[in-house]
Write a structure and sequence with these properties.
This protein is an alpha/beta fold and about 425 residues long. The chain has 19 helices and 8 strands. The strands form 2 sheets. The protein has a 5-stranded parallel sheet, sandwiched between helices.
Length: about 425
């Protein structure tokens, strides 16, 4: 079976690698390390298809160490032992370079097996992961490694890889490949920063293109749109991208930016993640708008109920309405702050007995000298309010809620100030 195009034209030198200039450009840290010839333990962190494996292979080519490649999804403890056993052989006399792809799938015991040999320098580890290594990699390995973050590749850089892909296919087949204007740019835009995904689209376009009279292939923009239209979504419900998007979604609503909020809503819905879109919308209405516009809470709830009832794709309409409303609404986190402080006090033991006048029992034992509940019913007093203590004695003067500076809460505050004076 033929290798995918991305593997057939994988760069063999740093000059051929697209993107990652923040670590691979002239004078940058990773490039300097590679040129020094002394390779420390490295962890490459970033989304798939951005060059982690390619750079690791280039490093391996530049060293005299014995290269072993393992993948965390399939490797076992026996595979690790086989690597370790080679240390005392002729082939491992210069040390071993272990390239471990998807290290996040190695459990703690498997990672610990490598620790002793990584520490004494007999094994040099180059690991790659699509997940945040500070959550998934054993701390002892992290402390002995240098972490480099690989970022999604820009559209301009991906377009260069796409053009190279078409040239390679033309040379490989010996037949001309004519590409309509705009094809390369469209594939680059649709790849979501993933070079491998863009090259897969190139290969598909070459296979699906129209045969020309001279035996070549013509790739139209329409063909590219059909084959690359959904490839721009980079989303994993269990990975960092999931949490990044829902974080940006809520922060955009909190920041009153309807354009950004609608954008992130679209990304959630395109990925089919209707529950996250609904949940964060409900949270934001309560946490970030709150009493500045209290009517928004039932409005957003109704929009979410409608979205869940009609399902996708129609769910996008009520949700978009609610998202823009949350963005445009005045903001207040006064109640959010109040409950957080109250919870913190309760958790730290700052509470006390419920005042006698608020207790549910209506009789006192013999030990109570001043018998009686002495509760005053607010509705029996002017303005439906009477001054009495509600908080426990230990925190009776504590203030949790301070009205926000919006019109609604200030109107409530003015009303009660007038009543309570």
């Amino acid at each position: 079976m033929n290798k995918p195009l991305a593997d057939r034209i994988r760069p063999s030198s740093l000059e051929e690698v697209v993107g990652q200039q923040h670590i691979l450009g002239e004078g940058k840290a990773l490039r300097n390390i590679m040129q020094s010839g002394r390779i420390p333990n490295l962890i490459f962190y970033g989304p798939s298809g951005v060059g982690k494996t390619t750079v690791a292979r280039i490093i391996a080519q530049q060293t005299d160490m014995r290269l072993h490649k393992l993948n965390g999804t399939t490797a076992s403890t026996a595979d690790i032992k086989a690597v370790v056993e080679e240390l005392d052989t002729f082939t491992g006399m210069n040390g071993i370079l272990l390239y471990l792809d998807e290290i996040q799938y190695f459990n703690k015991r498997q990672q610990q097996t490598l620790l002793e040999y990584i520490e004494n320098g007999q094994i040099t580890l180059i690991a790659s992961t699509t997940e945040n290594p500070y959550f998934y990699v054993y701390n002892a390995i992290l402390s002995r490694s240098t972490v480099f973050e690989f970022k999604p590749v820009s559209n301009a850089d991906i377009e260069k890889a796409v053009e190279r892909g078409f040239r390679f296919l033309q040379e490989e087949s010996g037949n001309p490949i004519t590409v309509e204007e705009g094809v390369c740019a469209h594939i680059a835009r649709s790849s979501g920063g993933d070079v491998r995904k863009s090259l897969n689209a190139v290969e598909l376009c070459a296979l699906a293109g129209e045969t020309t009279p001279d035996g070549g292939v013509y790739v139209s923009l329409d063909t590219a749109r059909q084959l690359a239209q959904r490839s721009a979504m980079r989303y994993d419900r269990e990975g960092d991208e999931h949490y990044d998007i829902i974080s940006a979604y809520q922060k955009s609503m909190r920041g009153s930016d309807p354009d950004a909020a609608i954008h992130y809503l679209a990304r959630l819905l395109e990925a089919g993640d209707l529950p996250s879109a609904c949940r964060r919308l409900l949270v934001c209405a309560n946490e970030d708008v709150g009493l500045a516009y209290p009517q928004i809470i039932p409005i957003v709830k109704a929009a979410v109920d409608t979205a869940l009832q009609v399902g996708l794709p129609e769910a996008r309409i009520p949700l978009a309405n609610a998202v823009v409303l949350v963005c445009q609404a005045p903001k207040s986190n006064a109640v959010y702050n109040a409950i957080n402080q109250a919870m913190a006090d309760v958790q730290s033991g700052k509470s006390g007995a419920v005042p006698r006048q608020l207790q549910n029992k209506h009789y006192d034992g013999d030990e109570v000298v001043n018998k009686g509940q002495f509760y005053r019913y607010p509705h029996d007093f002017p303005g439906h309010w009477v001054d009495q203590q509600y908080l426990p004695d230990a925190i009776k003067d504590t203030t949790y809620y301070t009205p926000g500076d919006n019109k609604t809460e200030q109107a409530f505050a003015a009303y009660w100030k007038d009543i309570k004076k």
